[in-house]
Amino acid sequence: MSRILRIDASSRSHGSFSMEFADYFQKKWLEQHPDDEIVVRNLAKDAIPHIDENCITGFYTPKEQHTDALKSATRLSDTLIDELLSADVLLISTPMYNFSVPSALKAWIDQIVRIGHTFNFDADKGLYGLVEGKRAYVVTASGAVFSNPEMAAYNFLDPYLKTLLGFLGIGDVNFISIEGTTTDEKALEKSKQQAIKEIDDLVCQVPDEARLAQASN
Ligand SMILES: Cc1cc2nc3c(=O)[nH]c(=O)nc-3n(C[C@H](O)[C@H](O)[C@H](O)COP(=O)(O)O)c2cc1C
Cβ(95) to ligand 1 under 6 A? Predict the structure, then answer.
């Protein structure tokens, strides 16, 4: 059995394309892996606070020296990092807002990117990620069509998330893009069909590790 951590970042509770296709992904996933557990964090319903001064002090203070104030300021970060580290698969659904991630998702990111927990630094290795052995799927929705070469330079969402997840140690990242949601009906229809195909292919490609392990015993 695997655990999937699903992070939903759209501010919309109705009509969100990124959530619609994350729902489709989840449905297909559970058809293939019925025993898997899905843990959902909806960042619009359950907003993550921005990191504040105590929180940052807590991030850079060894745990054994944490005062009650620092413990309390870093508690949410501890919880969110535990959720991430205990997941096998990360599914993020996110809109593009102003060419990048919504602030709701950035707030989650600021809580989980933490030295000594999800990345580290030493003189020999430099910076390295600690979130190992995971695969990520990112479902994005954008009003414009960034697969058009003349728009590609405006897309700071996919490259940012790819770099960030890679920094944490998650190199296996698959993007599913729903494009043209506010500007181009034809492109939207095309990208929706493509997304269905990509999700079907991606979910079927995943080996059921538990079953394979059982079979070899
Ligand atoms: C505040 C805001 C900013 C947006 N900025 C962009 C943008 O920079 N580029 C773009 O292509 N679409 C932009 N859009 C459109 C959304 O990406 C689009 O509506 C997308 O479908 C939203 O995701 P959702 O359907 O999952 O809610 C923006 C929408 C909002 C509400």
Answer: yes
